[in-house]
Design a protein that fits this description.
single chain, 7-stranded antiparallel beta sheet, 3 domains, mainly beta, 9-stranded mixed beta sheet
Amino acid sequence: MKKLLLETSFSKIYMIVMVIITLLIVGGYFSYAMFTVSKEQGNAISIITGNLVYDLEVDGSEGNNLTVGAGETKEFTVTLSNPNNRIARFNFYYEGSLPDGVTAGYITGEGLNTPPNEIGTNLEASGTAGSSNIYKIRVKNDSSSNVTITLGVEVGLDYNDLELPSNGHLFEEAKLEGPVSDIVLENPGPDGDTYDDGTDTFITGTDPNNYIWYSGKLWRAVSVNNEAKTVKLVTQWNISAIPYNASGNAAFAGSYMEDWLNDTTVDGFLGNLRDYENFIVTDAKWNATLTESSSKPAETTMVTDAVGLLNYYEYVTSYHGTTYSNGYLNNGLYWWTLTPYSSSDVRNVGFNGNAVYYSLSGASGARPSINLKSSVKIVDGDGTVDNPYRLEGDNDTDLSGTLLSSRYSGEYIRFGSIENNLYRIVSHENGTGTKITSAEPLKSSGTFITSAFGSSNSEVNYSTNSVIGTFLNGEYLTSYVNSTYSNMIEDSTTWYLGTVEGGTSYKLAKYTNTTDNILTASTTTAKVGLLRLGELMAGQFDRYGNNTSYWTLTPYSSSRVRYVYSGGYATYGSPSSISYGVRPSINLKSNVIITGGDGTKNNPFTIELSD
């Protein structure tokens, strides 16, 4: 057996290796699996992980068994190599105790390395990789029978000589790199599995390692086509909430939903995806066949689009081996599937994961689905929610000095006060700047604040004089956003106040109709506003019960205003008699630049005004 135990300290930084790793050496190639170091300096604590990989050879053959006949003395040549680029200290040892009459030791001199002492010997120098050292070990067997002893190696770190690299890792972390189709199927994790239906291989389970970060959004890999090796993704959260279509027409083709998903303008989903022609299959086939069954549907109604939704069968198959409430695609919200249940209803997943049916005119949550091309590769991450896979071509690392207006919908930004300082890019609606919104509704001392929309039931149009508009353009700017950030905001933005009734298109929130792209005359100007119905990021990004309902600025009628319910769908309420959460939206100036971060939730962009 092989055992690693590290415990030491040095100068101002105190480190303790917390985990003892015991591995059975099988053949000559083995790995010290993940270990953890807790680094404490002042009140800061960080966790550092890494992999040590070594190759042990005895007499040029992979293996670690030393066999010596009765009365014989043998010298063994041992090569120990390490592909990492950090200093390591080590000692050889023998499994168990040596048999009676058997002695073993290192041979010194002859130009060989000095044998390891009590603190060990450097395996390689700092900054090099792939080095190896050769040792000779003499085993003398004075017993009356043949013996076989097993050689092991104990590896440690010399913290007195070792400085942490800039990434904070003692050893380079092992990366899973390669085609997305291979990685997501080969590494589902302890809470995941796979299921092959003969055409596609589905990722299943309660929480598999299938998280992918692409174009400012967190996705889940759902399935891999066995022949084409394309990978179907769906967003983890509801990106928006809109009516599926007009009443009486449950077909996906020609629906409001199809329009919103594949709209290539600033108002739609596809138009805000990063370099989508390089990443996704733009002529993908979507099975929108009407069925009441959860079995694989016939290919009766196929629609060709770049972006679609998951159908009922794909959703059900994802929780193969568990239940709908525990399946990983149950995000605790209400959201549309692609499958018509009848001519007037479409399958909709509820907050508990049960897929029932829902009226077309209802504005349920939208979770877009895309198919990654087989050529797309994973270059970083491990597929967990805190370290999702990153895709080649969408893994920028040094963006300092880059204009924020060049970035993508969904990416995170540090903006505002400490409790409410996380924002997300919505779009670049004004062409030169960047529209952003708070990542969640505003809080005060950890509790969501609420507000009426207006002072009367007829006050359905947002303005700086409305109840919520007065707050956003007054107290919000002074108490929630300091002057450094307030100076980055455009002083006057046009906010569109078109009415979206039940069963009508999301486009009416901004345009007079769904075809001519003539802007609505119902507008207001203000420094701070709200998201409108159907706008990107006007969805829910946490489970029902962990978030709150919040106002949009879109009227439903002359006496009701649209709001996004905490369960993920959009409905309507009285502007004066009900209070809901506040999610401000603002347009940042065109000369805002990035100073740090990579736009993910764990490492948001930091920004400033350029000269």
